[in-house]
Amino acid sequence: MNRRFFIGALGAATTSLCMGGGQPGKPRYVFLMIGDGMGVAQREVAERYARMKYPARKGGLAMNQLPVKALTTTSEIEGKVTDSAAAGTALACGAKTVNGALGVGADLTTPLRSVAFDAKDAGMKVGIVTSVPIDHATPAAFYAQVPKRSMYYEIGEFLVKSEFDYFAGETMLGRKKAKDKVPQDTLVKDAGYTHVRDRAGFDRLKKGAVKVLVEHDLGYAIEGKPSISLADYTRKGIELMMGDAGFFMMVEGGKIDWSGHANDLATNIHETLAFDEAVAVVLEFCKKHPAESVLVVTADHETGGLELAGNAPKKMVAALDRQEYQSAHYDTQVKQWKKGGAVAPEVAFDRLVDAFGFAPLENDARTRLKDAVAASLADDATDERSLEIQKMYGKKNAAVVSCLHELADRAGAKWTSFGHTDTRVSTTAVGRWADRFAGENDNTDIGKHLRELITKG
Ligand SMILES: [Zn+2]
């Protein structure tokens, strides 16, 4: 028997023994963890990278080791490719809606009920955690009811009215829209929330703290360890809400989606790994409380149409590790080079080849990248060729996307879209009640199962 498989099989057997199974009652600790835009290929490519890069860890990703496995469909109510609002609503409320809508039905008015409120009514504590703004679509699906996901200020009002116990994420987008309205800080304070915005305040939060809102930017994992990580947010949530009442906690890795839209593979992998660190924290907790906890890890949809053609893992890691920043950093650079013709196309080309470690670059790839750099640095609509190239890359920076595609190719992967796709996502679970998430299901089933667990067991 292959050693790796043996370890995996043993792990699963041990886990299901520990979890008991078949006993009556409701779970005390319920975790739903959502990798935004994290399709099957995203989980797989991060797994391969982790196994090669961190051989000491042996098992790859924590989320891929959970014994119960499923494939989950994600389309919105009319069968279209979903956005994060409709998919978040499906997971949170167990019901389909149209894209853009949060916590309301397809008529944009009928309120839908999130399982987080069921948990609150059942006397449990509730935590909502994310690596993106806390009023962004996925987290908001668990506490807001608005026809449009961009209604950030109103989403903030729902947040403070929710009475949920722990919110942690990046700075609220609603702050930008609060000009002629009651400032968000006032809303938060008046609702009695302890509002924390830095590491020192975060460290001062201790068990028993009630109604906490942490707003602090995490940045991108590829650019180095943030002052507070998603795993830290998750660990703190457990610490604050631990107790007889139990809790429901939703944790989202939100920038897996953003880097998928950018077709930025290295950043995508690092974001998946940062999310998986949070999964590992929860898994460790579940192993300590096997008879009382359930953990479900899923995604709201796939982003980027990522395909894995495969490459030698060593080559893959070497290619990916050349990239030091997330894509927007390079976008900004190229924009600066363009200003007033500050940097000639040949120089820009050499700098990008150097930054991504592309030398030597074979002929086709060289031509592709040279054309893309020329198009990115040209004044708008100068010649037909650059127009054509710009069209190819949509609104993206042609030079940067061309580099990111070359890097993905060297890593054995290929992006086929800048948007969301309709492919099924992987769902894994562990815990006494995890079996009901097994097999093939729809994202609404996850919400329905969670509701049943929380209300009836
Ligand atoms: Zn997206």
UniProtKB/TrEMBL annotation:
Keyword Magnesium on entry: yes
Keywords, alphabetical: Hydrolase, Magnesium, Metal-binding, Phosphoprotein, Zinc
PROSITE patterns documented for this protein: ALKALINE_PHOSPHATASE
SMART domains associated with the record: alkPPc
Keyword Zinc applies: yes
Residues binding Mg(2+): D36, H136, T138, E252
UniProt cofactor(s): Mg(2+); Zn(2+)
GO molecular function: alkaline phosphatase activity; metal ion binding
InterPro entries: Alkaline_phosphatase (IPR001952), Alkaline_phosphatase_AS (IPR018299), Alkaline_phosphatase_core_sf (IPR017850)
Transmembrane segment boundaries: none
Domain of life: Bacteria
Cofactor-binding details, from the entry: Binds 1 Mg(2+) ion. Binds 2 Zn(2+) ions.
Chain sites annotated for binding Zn(2+): D36, D257, H261, D300, H301, H420
Sequence similarity: Belongs to the alkaline phosphatase family.
Protein's name in the database: Alkaline phosphatase 4
Organism: Pontiella desulfatans
Gene this chain is encoded by: phoA_1
